[in-house]
Amino acid sequence: MDLFRGNIQSKLPQTGTSIFAVMTGLAKEHNAVNLSQGFPDFPISEELIDRVTYYMKSGYNQYAPMTGVAELRNAISQMFKLNHGADYHPDKEINITAGGTQALYAAIAAFIRKDDEVIIFEPAYDSYAPAVQLNGGIVKYAQLEFPGFRINWDELPRMFNHRTKMVIINTPHNPTGSVLDEEDMLRLERMLKGRDIVVLSDEVYEHLIFEDIQHQSVCRFPNLARKSLLVGSFGKTFHATGWKTGFVLAPDNLMREFRKAHQFIVFASNTPVQYAISDYITNPANYEYLGQFYQKKRDLFIEKIKSSRFNILPCYGTYFQLLDYSGISDENEMDFAVKLVKEHGIAAVPVSPFYHNKSDHKVLRFCFAKQQATIEKAGEILCRI
Ligand code: PMP
User: Fold this and answer.
1) Which of ligand 1's atoms lies nearest the C-alpha of 170?
2) CA–CA distance, 156 with 207 (Å, rounded to integer)
3) For ligand 1, what atom is nearest to the CA of residue 103?
4) Measured between alpha carbons, how far is residue 341 from residues 64, 109, 350, 359, 385 in Å?
5) Do β-strands 246-249 and 228-233 pair in parallel, antiparallel, or remain unpaired?
6) What does the pLDDT read at residue 6?
7) Which ligand 1 atom sits nearest the alpha carbon of residue 38?
8) CA distance 249 to 255
9) What pLDDT does residue 377 have?
């Protein structure tokens, strides 16, 4: 065998198997209730499946345009007008992507060069930092304040220097369920005034927001929108994480650069799914119910565990609930999570892997995008611990 014998110098030396794969693997091995990875265990809309089938059978099976099919870009433009009063030109300012992760990667690849600095708030979704590092950038970590997971706005200006090129925000926030409010966005807008810093706004959970809270998209703040790339994911919105279809909205000067990277990373994404979603989102009723739908699941989960020894942290959006177990054990998060799977048959995700230095607050993340029976079973188990 002619093996590669050179010295492999990893571009991501710290990166191992993702915590989601580790916990899901363990959950399978121990036949545990799996609330670790963020994916729904209930069926998606029949109508949406029918639309995809229709387009596949009608011959829409070849490459989509690099920018995405026009019907979907038009429908997204109208959706953002309706929901936020925002104006994004369907041809110049909207691009369809192969999910949120690819959109984030292409945005980072388009704008970040060697030694550019990118500010990321921790705990952070795990794809941001490696994408920056693969492109030669340097990650600067700001800390969300425990236990509310709010941004410390006084800290941020101290992190800016001439190398700062990007700030990544995420609302509603994975893994904590916190959301940015209007004042947060106004502060960010004021802070970036006069600075050439791009905002990468991860809004994949835009519709999964509770208690009638208004999702504060960057697109609602004109001076912020002018320097922002907004990332969305239909996988999240329509319980179809396997479809990997998302989008980016950005003013045309930023979009032109985004497309230069995007076209060589993926070029185009799934054609029949794009057509199907363009029909489906034309009816706002198909997404407006989502906040209440997931709020009911959150409330059921909370109801089922309120007599447990876990402390329930506030959750305003996403489908993740953080539980503090410091009243039960002083083990670290990883050990406690493994113990839950092996000894109690329930899988959650420790939050420490969402920090570069593995900060440990003794909290685990539970995904409640599950059928009632799964949530009830999880509740029973958690109350016995
Ligand atoms: N951002 C966040 C915060 C996420 O939680 C996820 C999915 N886990 C993504 C982006 C990626 O979305 P997609 O599955 O569409 O790639």
Assistant:
1) 3
2) 27
3) 16
4) 43, 38, 12, 21, 12
5) antiparallel
6) 84
7) 8
8) 8
9) 97
The parts of the chain modelled with pLDDT lower than 50 are none
Ligand 1 in reach of 233 Cβ (< 6 A) = yes
Instruction: Give dist(CA 104, CA 231) in Å, integer.
Output: 7
Looking at residue 38, its pLDDT comes to: 86
Question: From the alpha carbon of 202, which atom of ligand 1 is closest?
Answer: 1
- 99 CB near ligand 1 (under 6 Å): yes
Of the chain, the end-to-end C-alpha distance in Å amounts to 52
Q: What is the pLDDT of residue 2?
A: 82
Ligand 1 centroid to Cα of residue 329, in Å, is 31
**In angstroms, what is the span from residue 356 Cα to ligand 1's centroid?**
19
* Burial per residue of 178-189, b for 16 or more beta-carbon CB atoms within 10 angstroms, e otherwise: bbbeeebbebbb
Q: Look at the alpha carbons of 56, 101, 85, 284 in this order and tell me if their dihedral is positive or negative.
A: positive
Q: What's the pLDDT score for residue 317?
A: 97
CA distance 266 to 102: 8
Tokens of 349: 């995700």
Cβ of 270 closer than 6 Å to ligand 1, yes or no, is no
Return the pLDDT at 1. 74
Q: Establish whether residue 38 lines the binding site of ligand 1, counting it when its CB lies within 6 angstroms of any ligand atom.
A: yes
Determine the distance separating the centroid of ligand 1 and the alpha carbon of 38, expressed in angstroms.
9
Instruction: Confirm or reject: Cβ of 245 under 6 Å from ligand 1.
Output: no
**Cα 69 to ligand 1 centroid, rounded to whole Å:** 22
Place of tokens 């997931």: 294
Instruction: Concatenate the DSSP letters of all residues of 65-99 into one string.
Output: PTT--HHHHHHHHHHHHHHH-----TTTSEEEESS
The rounded Å distance from CA 58 to ligand 1 centre is 30
For residue 60, give the nearest of 274, 281, 277 by alpha carbon.
274
C-alpha gyration radius of the chain: 21
Among protein residues, the one with the nearest Cα to ligand 1's atom 10 is: 100
**Phi-psi region for residue 136, left (φ > 0), alpha (ψ -120 to 50) or beta?**
left
Alpha carbon distance 228, 200 (integer Å): 6
CA of 204 to the centre of ligand 1 (A): 6
